[in-house]
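User: I'm writing a tutorial on reading structure tokens. Could you give me a worked example: one chain, its sequence, then its tokens, then a sentence or two explaining what the tokens reveal?
Assistant: Sure. Here is the example chain.
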Amino acid sequence: MRYGAFVEQVDHLGTRLADTAEQDLEVAVPTCPGWSASDLVRHVAQVYEHKIASTELQRAPDPWPPGWPADRDPVEWFRDAHGRLLAMFRVHEPTDPSPTWWPDDQTVGFWARRMAHETAIHGADAELAFGPTTPLDAALAVDGIDEILKIMLAGDWSEAPSPESIGQRVAVLGGDRTWTITLGRTAIQVAEGFLDGVSATVGGEPSNVDLWLWGRAPEEALEVSGEQSDVRLLRERLVLATQ
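And here are its predicted structure tokens:
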């Protein structure tokens, strides 16, 4: 997906998130234990504020967070921050610098992609408080699968080793793409394509796969085959990766 497409998704999904949450700000959000819809929109508003500040300051804002007004209407705050985030994206090029937590990409484009997925997943949280979710755009969901696997999951796990992980391989299928995850004790590798030695596969509609990876859809929404214990190991790693 291109920069403009991510910005369009932030626009569309953010509006839907606010419209959904304001139906009942006190309703519990089942996928965010202990949170109400009010807590959810406050959280996303603060995330938006952080990206705006990081780009304006050209450094991570510190101290963070500032002392937000306790009595501020959460939906009004969200809509204001959402509008300013969109304005920031629209006056910048994707290659413009902005400090991020991902060493390989220190650009505004990174935040456009990340905020599209942040808004998509928390938008699903809001909808789940009231009923079923609206399927995510297929292209966004495929990119979301790629992001969570390559940026959130892959890498060094030496600080949270998994004794049960001894190189099992699980393939994730979404759209026309496949990723193979190799689960090691202290590292997880993610490669494009279907590699030899795959013991289990997880696939389905891209929206369902993306939401399942983030813990927002049940396994029943997917097509799962092979060793269930290896799928369980992947699920456990994903929970830690997305905390």
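What the tokens reveal: Strands lie at 155-156, 168-174, 177-183, 187-192, 198-203, 223-226. The radius of gyration is 18 Å.
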